[in-house]
Design goal:
alpha/beta; Rossmann fold; 10 helices
Length: 267
């Protein structure tokens, strides 16, 4: 067995199946084996911490989280890092997004995520609440009193990379866009991505990137896959992701992460 001390997994399109389930009993067996060999399990996702925590009820305090694409990092029960977007940057991002009626924006704070009345409808709010278990309506994003971690705009699917380029050009130096495709874009603090979150845990646990394995399927996983020693792209991942990964494992609907971990941990 390879000397792996950290396993990081993306969630959507990677760890969970398309119906948002996973084999709980099988995962718990793997987790027990990881404890035996001193290997940490990290959930690394663009999703909100509170949603990710609810995905692992009863044992989330045994796990660590790199949530909000690296803007929120938690080592079991201890929060290590929260991003804090400057108020001027927050207001500028809001102004830019308001110029594009097709953008449906979500403001992601430390305490909650927010949707703005008048800019999105109830159906969008309900859909967003699947990924953000703490979500509130507000009248004006600029009046939100919270520590802002990132923005999560939804754009027309076929224009995802056009909007990605627009954000990169118009907000250069203030934020970095990242995307998993399919109309989802995250606007994050520069240098604050999944790999930066993993690096905080690696340094805390006195291990090396070579002792880490990671699984992903989207563009926002690329830095993480490049950072670790053993990188796995899902079979359902895009070609850009597969190019940077050392391995390709079965798709999320075939429980690819669990299959690869059983092999890696010699279960």
């Amino acid at each position: 067995m390879k000397d792996i001390k950290l396993v990081a997994v993306d969630v959507d399109g990677t760890f969970v199946r398309s119906d948002y389930t996973y084999d709980v009993k099988r995962f718990k067996r793997i987790l027990e084996r990881m404890k035996e060999v001193g290997c940490q399990f990290v959930i690394a996702s663009g999703n909100q911490y509170y949603q990710l925590r609810d995905l692992f009820p009863g044992y989330h305090e045994e796990l660590s989280f790199v949530a909000e694409n690296g803007a929120y990092v938690k080592d079991k029960t201890e929060v290590l890092f929260n991003a804090n977007m400057d108020k001027k940057v927050v207001d500028h991002v809001i102004d830019v997004c308001r110029e594009y009626p097709d953008i449906k924006n979500v403001l992601c704070g430390k305490e909650s995520a927010y949707c703005e009345r008048g800019s999105v409808d109830q159906a969008f709010f309900d859909l967003t609440s699947i990924y953000y278990h703490r979500l509130k309506w507000v009248d004006d994003f600029k009046e939100v009193d919270d520590q802002i971690l990132k923005f999560a705009p939804t754009v027309p699917v076929e224009e995802t990379y056009d909007y990605y380029d627009m954000f990169r050009e118009r907000l250069k130096g203030e934020i970095e866009p990242t995307t998993s495709g399919h109309g989802s874009v995250d606007l994050i603090v520069p240098g604050c991505h999944k790999a930066s979150g993993l690096k905080r845990l690696v340094e805390r646990w006195h291990i090396t990137p070579e002792q880490c394995a990671a699984f992903g399927d989207g563009g926002n996983d690329i830095e993480m896959l490049q950072y670790v020693g053993e990188s796995y792209a899902m079979d359902n991942a895009g070609e850009d992701v597969k190019k940077v990964a050392k391995h390709v494992c079965p798709s999320n609907d075939e429980d690819g992460v669990l299959c690869a971990l059983e092999e890696l941990l010699e279960i």
